[in-house]
Design brief:
The structure is a homodimer. By secondary structure, the first copy, chain A, is α/β, with parallel strands linked by helices. The first copy, chain A, has 14 helices and twelve strands. Helix content of chain A is about 40%, strand content about 15%. The longest helix of chain A has 16 residues. In chain A, about 50% of the residues are buried. The mean pLDDT of chain A is about 85. Chains A, B: This is LacI family DNA-binding transcriptional regulator.
């Protein structure tokens, strides 16, 4: 015979109602109270019969997080926060990798493998707003980490245009005049690349500077290294480069240093994502740091509201904050 | 009305039995045939009623992968392979993070959150063989990435002792005599640290060289940077360092370079894991590369056999292969 809610409440020194709120993952429980209850639950080895409750509610207690690739540090770090936020609701998180493929994103929107999940958090690359609007599956959906204007689903993202403009302004503020953008894509329908490119262009235009754009197919170190080599081979190589993510920047850093050039003296370098790698590279990497914990928490909160049947049919757009992290790759030692 | 297995078989040019084998995730279908069938399934939008079948079999079609931390690149890369291998069986993969905490590992062994999964692949840090042996939950279990001798569960790992000895031999072979080990742990009951330390000691003893050991609490860049600073402050700093994973090595690299020392001229540096970061750092990082795809595939195969009720009660121990990757941090440019 296991512990009852009453046993838990007595040990934690709270009401049975509060214990119930914690067990059911409702909000409006203070972190301190939640911690007391969690400890009591753990000490008395309380096991809610989640399977039975989920079946009763027609739910699985499992959500899917669909992202391009788990072995990209940004998505790994973000996933960690999503799993932590979901755990507070006693949800399990299934990870689905799309590799940014349109076909795989479509399949996820058609119901993750036969509706074994209650909801989906999707970080889309290939799929566009029109196709999202035509979606017939009714599994709860939240888009994470990009922005489809007037899109048909809830989404949460940083303001990518403004973030890109800010970091480009920082490079221009160093007195650099040949600032390149590295990371444009040819086929992105809804990813962040067009937004980051737009922000770069706004900053360059505001200062009357000419644009230099290098394209890539994937946002990985190898592509950053290759695109940087291509930039160095041009008649007028850049004196500053804004890479659309940190992995591209770390690949570019390798190419620049291997060519015997100095960072930032010859080429100032900046990324976006604030992955841990860039805090320990030599030089350390200047970047834009999205608040990943906030992004994850908002995404899970929005999804919970959808799963619970709220909050009406209108899609919501929520912004998350970001900061510029100025490090050695632009500021020097 | 959806497509039938017969429709799929006709389009793919194979037998109905073969289609059934693919849909049910059985082995012994060639990759080429599997691809043809998958394409036909996709084109005809075939939807097996997995929920119904799973319920009939008393299964969820979901497994858990429990690992210390998803935002460690080694585990993110490994997770990618596990998710890919599980997808071929049409399994979903829930990720659980233990942070290497004994309490969380215990809870996972007690049945992941009320048995909503069919099986568990666990990468243990804290839990020991005795406790594993005393486990009463009967959820299928496979241990991944370490070695508990004569342990009570199936497990798959590289030979960590031999790998550590090999990489230490490589450092000694460069003519270095003050080779340090960075990454020992105080409280590891079953992790890889004691095995890697044992391999290092074997190599040092074989050459009559004195041991230098730096301890850490976590296997992250920050801990590597701090432990390296502590090694540099000793009266006789090392002329080579074997770090127990690549993250520690990349942190140590930062400390060495920031101190104005050269790699490998002043200090040769090696890691273990072969994460992508070390292929693009400057200098690139010498390391041991475990075959992560093989590790993942074996783990999923072992788990499938356990879930299917085979292969008897005796635990199995399977070794995966590894290679030394000699790069600039020991070989120079």
């Amino acid at each position: 015979m296991g512990a009852s809610l009453r046993d838990i409440a007595r040990l934690a020194g709270v009401s049975v109602k509060t214990v119930s709120n914690v067990v059911n993952g409702y909000a409006h429980v203070s972190p301190a109270t939640r911690a007391k209850v969690e400890e009591a639950l753990s000490r008395l080895d309380y096991r809610p019969n989640l399977s039975a409750r989920n079946l009763r509610q027609g739910r699985t207690g499992v959500i899917a997080l669909a992202l391009p690739e788990l072995d990209s540090p940004y998505f790994a770090e973000l996933s960690r926060f999503v799993i932590d936020a979901a755990a507070e609701l006693r949800w399990l998180v299934v990870i689905e990798q799309t590799d940014g493929s349109l076909d795989r994103e479509r399949r996820i929107l058609d119901g993750v493998r036969d509706h074994r999940v209650d909801g989906v958090i999707l970080s889309p690359i290939a799929i566009g707003a029109d196709e999202l609007a035509a979606r017939t599956d009714d599994t709860a959906l939240v888009l994470l980490g990009e922005r489809i204007h007037d899109g048909p689903a809830d989404h949460v993202a940083i303001d990518n245009v403004r973030a890109a403009r800010d970091i480009t302004e920082h490079l221009i503020g160093l007195g650099r005049t040949r600032v390149a953008a590295l990371g444009a894509e040819d086929n992105a329908a809804s990813g962040t690349a067009p937004l980051r490119l737009a922000g770069y262009r706004e900053a360059m235009a505001a200062h009357g500077l000419p644009e230099t754009v290098a394209k890539v197919e994937r946002y990985r170190r190898g592509q950053g290294a290759a695109a940087m080599a291509e930039l160095l081979a041009r008649p007028e190589p850049p004196d500053a480069v804004f890479c659309f993510n940190d992995l591209l920047a770390l690949g570019a850093m390798r190419t620049i240093l291997a060519a015997g050039l100095r960072i930032p003296e010859d080429i100032a370098l900046a990324g976006l994502d604030d992955i841990e790698d860039g805090r320990f590279s030599t030089p350390t990497l200047t970047t834009v740091a999205p608040d990943k914990a906030q992004l994850a928490r908002i995404a899970v909160d929005l999804l919970k509201q959808r799963i619970d049947g709220g909050p009406g049919s209108l899609p919501r757009e929520v912004g998350a904050s970001y900061r510029l992290m100025i490090r050695e790759s632009t500021a020097g030692r």
